[in-house]
Amino acid sequence: MKLLKKHLVPIIVLLIFETVAVTLWLTKNNLFYLFNFSYIGLSLSLGILLYTKNYRHARRVVQLLVGLYMLVYLGLICRENMQIEGFWYYLFTGVFEAATIHYAVAKIFGPLIFGRGWCGYACWTAMVLDFLPYKTPVRPRKKLGWIRYVTFAASLIFVSALFLARVGAIERIMFWAFLIGNAAYYGIGIALAFLFKDNRAFCKYVCPITVFLKPMSYFSLFRIRCNKDKCVSCGKCKRVCPMDVDVTDNSRKRKNGTECILCMECVKNCPKDAL
Ligand code: SF4
Ligand code: SF4
Ligand code: SF4
Asked: What is the pTM for the complete model shown?
């Protein structure tokens, strides 16, 4: 009983994912969903378990387990375009399958519960960017967030144009779009990280998916909160935050509140256990 209580959070996460896995498996009559959501649930539970054991690289383990699975298995082997172009493509064809379900769960409705957990634990772009040397930004944030709307519109226009022009072999184009899109994301992401000395510059200014993630995560059920009675305003949490979040402000309107990727660096570094 004591053991069960100690590991309650990873067990709850596993149960939630198993519920989704079994529901989708039975309703869609497709074993893939059972495997897919069970794997992701197990990876996340393992990460939470490692975190509770104070393993320093717990988040990176989850990032690699989930990110590589998505990129290599789903993207390259199964040829499922999980980029935003893939989402538009499957949405336009009316296919409610892997890519659309993935967006619905991880990036559109899921953030109402777990905020931008996707960005901290599963994204295969950030999985690589987080290996770069600038883990916390050294300079103030730039006013370049508008770029995300340009990339968002470009992805939508690209896929709409393919449909309007009735281009053939669209599945093959989507696979190539996945390869080229990913190469571009990595190239731009790494260049920006070095240019701005900030690993997460791509996430802050360019990533089109944040157009979904930011407004939805505003309402997130799970948020980092500050216990004002314990906080001594030392500012350490803000210094270690990769996303410039003012985590000592508990309001939903806090500075860069919709940027929090739940990486837990602030929690780990707070000397007063106030977070
Ligand atoms: S902002 Fe975009 S690139 Fe960054 S972690 Fe989130 S989904 Fe990935
Ligand atoms: S690190 Fe902890 S004590 Fe210091 S400002 Fe942040 S919440 Fe307060
Ligand atoms: S350091 Fe804290 S506030 Fe900043 S992104 Fe990580 S969890 Fe969110």
From this structure: 0.92
The residue written with tokens 């493509």 in the block is 89
**Residue 125 beta carbon below 6 angstroms from any ligand 1 atom:** yes
Sign of CA dihedral 261, 262, 266, 268: negative
Protein residue closest via CA to atom 2 of ligand 2: 270
Nearest CA to ligand 2 atom 1: 270
Q: Is the CB of 13 under 6 A from ligand 1?
A: no
Cα-Cα-Cα-Cα torsion 56, 129, 117, 71, nearest 10 degrees, comes to -110
pLDDT for the residue numbered 3: 63
Please list the ranges in the chain whose pLDDT falls under 70: 1-5, 96-97
Q: Which of 217, 246, 264 is the last residue of a domain?
A: 217
Domain range for 178: 81-217
Query: How many domains does the chain contain in total?
Result: 2
User: Is residue 95 domain-shared with residue 213, that is, in the same domain?
Assistant: yes
- Enter the tokens of residue 44: 């996340």
